[in-house]
Amino acid sequence: MLRPLRPTLIGLLAWTALAWGQRPADADAAALIERSRQKALDYARSLPDFVCTETVRRYTARDSRQPLPWTSTDKLTVKLSFFQQKEDHKLMLVNDRPTDRKYEGLEGVTGAGEFGGTLLNIFEPAAQASFRWQSWKNVRRHRAAEYTYVVEAAHSRFLLRHGAVGHPQEAIVGFHGDLEVEGTTGEVLDFTYVADDIPRNLSLSYAGTTVDYDFAAVGGRDYLLPARSETEMRSANLWLRNNVEFREYRKFSADSVVEFGAAK
Q1: Are 90 and 222 in contact (CB under 8 A)?
Q2: Structure confidence by residue, pLDDT tens digits, 147-157
Q3: Has this prediction a pTM greater than 0.85?
Q4: What is the C-alpha to C-alpha distance for residues 59 and 69, in angstroms, rounded to an integer?
């Protein structure tokens, strides 16, 4: 009678090392990115209604010396509400002082879309994104697969806007970037997107963003939510950078309160 072989510890370690180092078959790489697509398409619907604090630190640089001499412009404290799958940004503090200014009317770089909008622009079938597997990585204790992707301008919904408030120049542009997805579930752990072929009338040479996700508790349950992001835009004589943190997630309700103030 033949007995099934029992893998030794050495054998298991060897198999694990091989799996980490091996490039997956094309079918397996495609299956994982398809799992990510379904997660991304369902992402906004899977989130509860919540509020959180968004802290935006904005910087400028006037020349291209390396390392860049970044100068702090301001610090924005924003109440971000996610209700019925839509984001709402309410500016509460500027440099830790109360303000009645509107977030949408601010000069400088502002952004949105970390809660599913940008992922949809990458993964929706109409985008016709092309994906290419790159490597295995460790991302915050998760085994992650890194992919590059490209969305051509003809299928893009990436609206890039630049110029004076009230008179901006704007264009739909193609974009590319990297994705790091959890190797089992297909959940996106972080991604980048960079604009391609920016029209000259926008007077920009570069526009790119990085978004990192992590688990946060909302209403007693953990959800994969944006933790931080960084956006950079460059023109001929001015570079702009936003460093954004998302914290203090809590479930949205009619009496939800987020306290702001210099002492906090």
Answers
A1: no
A2: 999 999 999 99
A3: no
A4: 10
